[in-house]
Every structure is written in C-alpha cells, then in structure tokens.
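hi! just following up on the protien thing from before. the input was this:
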Amino acid sequence: MTSEGWGTPPVEPISQHYIVCGGNALAHRLILELVEHYEVPVVVLVADRTRDHAPQIEQLAGVAAVVEYAAITDEALRAVSIGTARGLALVEGSDQENIHAALSAQNHNPDIRIVFRMFNQRLGENIERLLRNGAALSGSATAAPAFAAAALGRPNSVEIEGRYLHIAFDEAITSDRVCVVADQIDRRDLSRIRLLPAQQGDSAEFVRLAREFGDDGPIRPGGVRREAAPGASVAPVASADPADPADPADPAVPAVPEASGVLETPSVPEVPDIPDDPADPEASATGQEHTEEPAGTAALQVLRIEPREPIGWRRRLRWRVLDTMRFFTSARMRLVLLTALAAVLMSFGVLWYLNRNFGWTVYISLLDLAGAAQPDQLSDIASGSGTGGIWQRVAQVVITICGITFAPVATAIAVEVLGSGRRGLPRNPGAGTRDHVIVVGLGNVGTRVATQLHDLGVPVVCMERDPQARGVAAVRALGIPVVMGDGPFEEQLRRARLKHSRALVAVSGDDATNLEAALEARHGNPEVRVVVRLFDDDFAGHFYKTLDNAASRSVSYLAAPAFAAALMGREVRGTLSVFRHVLLIAELAVEPGSGLIGLNRHDLEDEGGVRVIAVRFAPGSQLQWGLPDRTRRLVPGDRIVVAATRSGLARLNTVTADS
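and the predicted 3d structure came back as:
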C-alpha cells in the first residue's frame, strides 16, 4: 500500500480541466472519451498507479497528470487542483465513499460539475439534491439492458416517454422507422459501416419525379402512377429523407403524388443475413474471404410496449408446481410423501370399491387420516355389524398409518423452511426449471441483469462463489435461486441445470473467469447461448472467432459515453449498439444562455454525428416525434431528443461551450 500523498502532482498550474478519480476499466474508457471526443485536459487520481488500468492510463495522450493517493482526501483534491477544475468524475469506490468525496469537492469548488457512480439509484437521486451541479449514474444500470437483451437474442432498447427505441436490422426495418442509423453494413468487413449517413434534401423526390415525367407526365391529382411504358424505370415513391419521413397530416409538408398502376412502398435495400450478434459493440470480423454482397442497413424504430417473453401459462404452472416442491422439501422427504400418498390413494380405491359410495368413502378416509376412525369391535364382527370386511379394515389401517406419517413430515418442512429463511440461505434451482438464463456473478452488473430478466418473466438461476456478494440478498428477495460454492464450474453449472437452460451470462469482474464459464457452459450444452463480459479486445476477438451463437459486452464501453456526456452537462437516456459502434440517445435542454438557442434542425444535424428524433417545444409538455419544420429555431425552454455518435454529441457540447 502506498503512503498517502505519494505521487506526481501536476508540474505546472492547471485550470479548466476535468478530474477522473479511479483506475478501473470504467475510468480508463471515460478518460478515452474525454481526451479523444471532447478534447479536454484530464487529471487522473488513482489509489495505486501500479494496479488495475492505471499503467495504461498513464500512457494515454491527453492526460495532463496521474496523481496517486490512497484515499480521496482534502489533500488529494487540492493536489489535483480541484479549485480550478470544471468537472469531477468519481467512478470507483463504494457509494458511501463517492458521496463523501462529492460533498468534499463541492466545498472546495461550489461551481464544479460532479458526476459520481452510485449503485443505489434512489439514494443517488437524493444526493443530487444536495449538490449544486451534480449527477448520479450507475454503470451497471446503463449496461445491464444490453446484457439482458443479448441473452434473449433480441436488440436492446431505450425508453423515451413510454416508447422503446431499438435498432432494427435489414428485413426487420418497417416503414415507420424513426431514422436510418447505419448503412453499408458488411459482416465480413465492419470497417465499411457508415453511422448516421448523409440525407437527401426534402425536395429530392419532387426533382426526380419532374425529371422522369416532365410537364406531361402521367400524374393525376390524388391518383396513382399509371403503368409505365416498357423499358421505363419506375422508382418507388418514398420519403426523400429516411431520417424524417414526411407526415401527411402536416400542412407544412406537401403531399408527394403517388403513382398509378403498380403501387410500390418504401423499402430498404436487399441485404445479407444479419450476424448472430448484430448489436455487439465489441464484435470482431470473422476473417472470412470477402464476397460482394448488398450492403445492410440499420434503423432506429419505436415499440409502443417493451415486449415480454412469450412463455405459456401451462409451462409457467409446471415450473411453479415442481419448483415449489423442490423449495419446500428435500429429496428424501419427497420420496416419503409420494410413497405415502400412493398408499392412501390405493386404499381409498379399495374402500370405494367395497362401499360403492364416494361421499362415504371420502368421509371415512379423512377420519382415518386424522386418526379419528372408529375401529371394529370383536362383538361387532361376531354379530355381523362390522365394516365391509378384512380388506376394508386393511385399507383403513394403511390410511391411518400414512396419516401419522404426514404430520411429522409437514412439521419438518415448516421447520426447514423457517430455519433456512432465518439463516439467509439462498435456495437451489427447482427440478422443473426450464428455458432459464444462468447469470454467473452477482456483483453490480449481475444483480441488475438477473433483476431485469426476472421482471421480463424469464426464469433465472444465479451462480456466485462469494456468499457475501451484495447481489445474493437482492436476488433472494425476488425468489431467484442461487447456486453457491467455489467448486469447479462443471459441477456448479450442473446444479444450475445447464442442460435445460437457454443462455448463460457471465458478468464477473474477471475476463478469464467469464471466458472459462462460457467455454465450460458450451462444452456442457452445445446449444446454449453465451453472453460474456469482456474488456480486453483480444479476448473478444478470439471469443467471436471460436464460438457461434455468442455475444460479448463491455460494461465500461457501454457506460463511459454516458458518464462523459453527463460530465459535460448532457443527459444520456441510454446507449444502443451497432456492431462495434455506440449510438447515444440523449435529451438536451435549451436553457437561457445556451448555444443551442437559435439553431434549427439543419444546424443541429450533421452527417455521421447527430439526428433529431423528438422535440418538446416550450411551453408545451407533449413530446413530438420528428421535427418536420426544419427551419424552426430553438428557444429557451425547448427540449430535444437526439440520436448521436460520441463525436456528434461532443460537437453539440462544443457549440454550447463556445457560444
């Protein structure tokens, strides 16, 4: 452990810089965002410059200094020139440590922008109220939806005003898409992808029609294009701007005449098959020989309701019954109960056969189970007034003995359940668990992923080696079974019922452990889908080349853009992935003095950078999707929602800062 205060403070006085406290993977990615996309000076405060990602951080161009302090004390904050800094990011340490550091930083510099990582989001919201200019973010909450969606083999989504935005690829794109976010997608050469490609002007379609038909073209008011002459090219009438389809109800947008004869609808180009993991930010090229194929397209689309997993009620009922039996009883207890139940049913059948009266048979059987039946006396047998003979007496004896067995077994079950609850022991997965997702690692990310899958109605089984992990109690409160222990992965996965699972999500903090879990899972179940948390790009590359039906995610890769934008005063609502690229969905407020005032849609949007997808005009509160009037300029009180690349969002921040 290094002594407090040892390190290399900035040699020259520095101001208007940004401070990042931490040496973990998130800090590493965040610093890259700040120096590469926002081009601001960064000073880094680490606990040990020889551990984690600190050595790599020191080598980054644009880092003004790396200062080492064992804890974020007042002395450490003064060493990184907190008084003249513009922003502070706290991305390492516990919630309590980050709260203390944020309040201390505000005492040194009341105007500084503070972004701090918090797992407890409700507590973070309350702490934000204590800060003049602060934001609490959770890296695990930002990244968890991408892991959950990858486990289910569907695209991730971001919620905006009750609508869910997601990336659709190729044939999944519909005519009501919000905007095209990528084209020239080739799974064998991902370097060809263009994010937010150039748009055509609004008048491009009118010009095309005029050139094709001239003044005497076969267009009639309200009609449709007639059959074209043989050999003439007939192009479909579509919105000239895929990012802004014309709204027929908008009086500001003239209707485009439709063609008659053969009616064609807007469509996207024919594209090759989408890869197994189209939304992966760390995907690697397969290395196969490139062949000429049509380029693919990706578009942003809206779902009204977040889809749940379609699991039939019969399967759910079967899972619940078998799982409940497994939860309340051990294997031996279940054997005793099933044997006793079978004996009771057989004896009940004998009594019914002898008496031919179902109601009377039920009555006498219940009395026998409770030990309250009246036995035959010798005098009754001698006088012929006894019960239905020797077989009825045998059946009653069997039922009575089984009834005596049920009482102590029920007591033992109650004691076991209450005792396990008081000891806080997590339960194991039930025998009826099927089509479930196994989550390996119950840290911050694992807990979030398990919770989201559970909320979607997907059966979940968790694996954790540390009984003190923070997520054990959280998932146990939801009734999610947990396999505990530090034995071999093969044994742990067998207990987690790998053979019957649909996917495995390995999200521990160690790349090697995650990769080992994924390979062991694929060995035990070749059909299972594996989703692995990997920071190292080389690991991710080998992972994709080796396994199919697999996906890789990086928490820092997904969360760092949101932290960087928040440090610049921007609110990122979520991140969406297009292969190796990240698309940010951000909401920007037009405040008095902001550089956004007076800008219109033409000024905001740029090729490969920004698309305006929704706007809320002041003083109204209704969010309007799309902005048909491209000349309408922003005024204070407006709010806009944009889809942007990291560099595009950084450009908007520069416009604001320079104005």
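The chain is about 35% helix and 15% strand.
Residues 1-6, 200-204, 219-292 have pLDDT under 50 and may be disordered.
cheers
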